């Protein structure tokens, strides 16, 4: 099931996406959900066309945990080694935007990059999750763009500003709850030109082991997001660019870059 979060007439709701499509509104409708999707819920039967609503970030995470250099080719293209253990970082909730929202180019950087990623959405509070129970804590999967101020990342030992600036974490367009993430195509285009093309099977550390790794250290809450790394092909963004992240079985996340302020 595809579950979207949206606003209509000043109200925010979740809905089940019905119809065929990867992220545009043509032919898609939303069946409004009673309650919240992390618990047992019912479909209301009240349906609205996707074209009549504004898509919001599909979840409002308490935290976004990113993993760096989880694809060998991406690590190599930036001159880095694959870390011996998973390398985690955090992005704040204020970095999260939805499909169709603008990425604001930060004034402190002259080299901002796109990074197409599969994002895992957590469905229940969990800590110290054993590998065999990881699937029990996953709500679903969505597309992500781990937008990065590359020059700032190189000059500052901590990545808080480089990866945590406002609008640096587009998520969407919705969460797919029924998906095998083991071998999906990840693609990124900029202004219609393909820049990244990879598969989730190329991950160095699996989704199961990433969740085991982070829950050894901290509690995850419903709606928290895990970014699983990006394949090779990252590159610069410029004001006016349109970036589209498409993941097989999920859909397409689209954002445009604007000048901040």
TrEMBL record:
Domain Fumarylacetoacetase-like C-terminal: 63-257
GO molecular function (one): isomerase activity
Keyword annotations: Hydrolase, Metal-binding
InterPro entries with a match to the protein in the record: Fumarylacetoacetase-like_C, Fumarylacetoacetase_C_sf, Rv2993c-like_N
GO biological process, one term: carboxylic acid metabolic process
Gene3D superfamilies: FAH, Fumarylacetoacetase-like, C-terminal domain
Domain Rv2993c-like N-terminal: 1-58
SUPFAM superfamilies assigned: FAH (SSF56529)
Alphabetized Pfam families for the sequence: FAA_hydrolase (PF01557), Rv2993c-like_N (PF10370)
Record protein name field: FAA hydrolase family protein
């Amino acid at each position: 099931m595809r579950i979207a979060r949206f606003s209509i007439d000043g109200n925010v709701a979740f809905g089940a996406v019905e119809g065929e499509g990867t992220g545009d509104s043509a032919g898609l409708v939303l069946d409004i959900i009673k309650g919240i999707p992390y618990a047992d819920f019912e479909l209301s039967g009240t349906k609205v066309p996707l074209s009549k609503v504004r898509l919001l970030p599909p979840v409002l995470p308490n935290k976004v945990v990113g993993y760096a250099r989880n694809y060998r080719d991406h690590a190599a293209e930036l001159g880095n080694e694959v870390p011996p253990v998973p390398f985690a970082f955090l992005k704040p909730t204020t970095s999260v935007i939805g499909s169709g929202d603008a990425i604001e180019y930060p004034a402190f950087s002259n080299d901002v990059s796109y990074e197409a990623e599969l994002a895992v959405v957590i469905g229940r509070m969990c800590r110290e999750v054993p590998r065999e129970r990881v699937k029990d804590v996953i709500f679903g999967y969505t597309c992500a763009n781990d937008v990065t101020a590359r020059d700032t990342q190189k000059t500052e030992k901590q990545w808080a500003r480089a990866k945590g600036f406002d609008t640096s974490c587009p998520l969407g367009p919705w969460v797919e709850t029924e998906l095998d993430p083991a071998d999906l195509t990840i693609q990124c285009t900029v202004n219609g030109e393909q820049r990244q093309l990879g598969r989730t099977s190329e991950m160095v550390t699996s989704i199961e082991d990433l969740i085991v790794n982070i829950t050894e250290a901290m509690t995850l809450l419903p709606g928290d997001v895990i970014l699983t790394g990006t394949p090779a092909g990252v590159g610069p963004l410029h004001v006016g660019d349109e970036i589209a992240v498409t993941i097989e079985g999920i859909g397409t996340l689209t954002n445009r870059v604007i000048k901040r302020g």
